[in-house]
């Protein structure tokens, strides 16, 4: 199904496949590992890298919304959803630079590491706003408590992303996988605006 993602029908089908994969992994493997952040993180990057446009944020947020209906989430849910959307945007930026090649695979891996740090910095900021004193000591305590989770996120996401990107890059280099399509200006701008809007709403809801 991923051999020729060049039109809207193919993009939609591929997006549904990614959402289903994210939902099933979160639900079926719940409790098996420390957490399943890496699964949604990889799917988020792929949504931007393979599909781009609206799907950059629709895929990760949909996977989270559907699985959250079963698993539940915390009150910082908007921080979580927008965090994964931000990871998708990183994937989208990589797509614009045509990084899905074996030669540029390390760039994607390092970007994945950066996206983990960005996500954890953002969601921990939400934790600080809601659960810790709004002081420097409170901020320090919040981020210190998150270190084990961040280390797990870095290790698991790097391993999973490497296992997925290398085969996809090989297929792309050999023209077995094609992901070339046009994304118009409105779609491109919406892709950046929507996650940013969710982030702003998350902060406002927490503060007020």
Q: What proportion of the residues form beta strands (DSSP E)?
A: under 5%
- The tally of beta strands, per DSSP, is 0
The gross shape turns out to be globular
Distance N to C terminus: 46 Å
What is the count of distinct domains? 1
C-alpha-based Rg, rounded: 17 Å
Task: Write the element-wise H/E pattern from the N-terminal end onward.
Answer: HHHHHHHH
pLDDT < 50 runs, ≥5 residues: none
Residue share in helix = over 70%
> Could you give a short account of the major beta sheet?
none
| Count of alpha and pi helical runs | 8
Mean pLDDT, all residues:
92
Given the helix and strand composition, which structural class is it?
A: mainly alpha
Short summary of the structure?
By secondary structure, this protein is mostly helical.
Structure, explained:
- It is a single chain.
- This protein has 208 residues and is mainly α.
- It has one domain (8-207).
- The protein has 8 helices and no strands.
- Helix 5 (105-131) crosses helix 6 (136-145).
- The longest helix is centred in the middle third of the chain and has 27 residues, at 105-131.
Key features of this structure:
208 residues, mainly alpha, 77% helix, globular
Spell out the blueprint of helices and strands:
Elements: H1 8-28, H2 37-51, H3 55-71, H4 77-96, H5 105-131, H6 136-145, H7 147-173, H8 185-207
């Amino acid at each position: 199904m991923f051999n020729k993602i060049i039109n809207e029908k193919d993009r939609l089908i591929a997006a549904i496949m990614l959402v289903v994969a994210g939902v099933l992994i979160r639900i079926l493997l719940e409790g098996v590992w420390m957490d399943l952040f890496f699964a949604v993180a990889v799917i988020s990057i792929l949504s931007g890298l393979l599909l781009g446009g609206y799907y950059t944020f629709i895929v990760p947020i949909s996977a989270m919304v559907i699985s959250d209906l079963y698993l539940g989430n915390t009150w910082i849910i908007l921080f979580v959803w927008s965090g994964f959307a931000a990871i998708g945007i990183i994937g989208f930026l990589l797509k614009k630079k045509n990084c899905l090649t074996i030669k540029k695979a390390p760039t994607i891996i390092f970007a994945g590491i950066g996206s983990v740090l960005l996500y954890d910095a953002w969601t921990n900021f939400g934790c600080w706003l809601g659960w810790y004193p709004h002081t420097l000591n409170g901020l320090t305590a919040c981020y210190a408590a998150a270190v084990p989770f961040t280390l797990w996120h870095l290790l698991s996401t790097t391993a999973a992303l490497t296992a997925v990107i290398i085969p996809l890059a090989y297929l792309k280099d050999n023209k077995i996988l094609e992901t070339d399509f046009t994304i118009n200006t409105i779609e491109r701008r919406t892709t950046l605006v929507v996650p940013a809007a969710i982030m702003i709403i998350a902060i406002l809801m927490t503060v007020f």
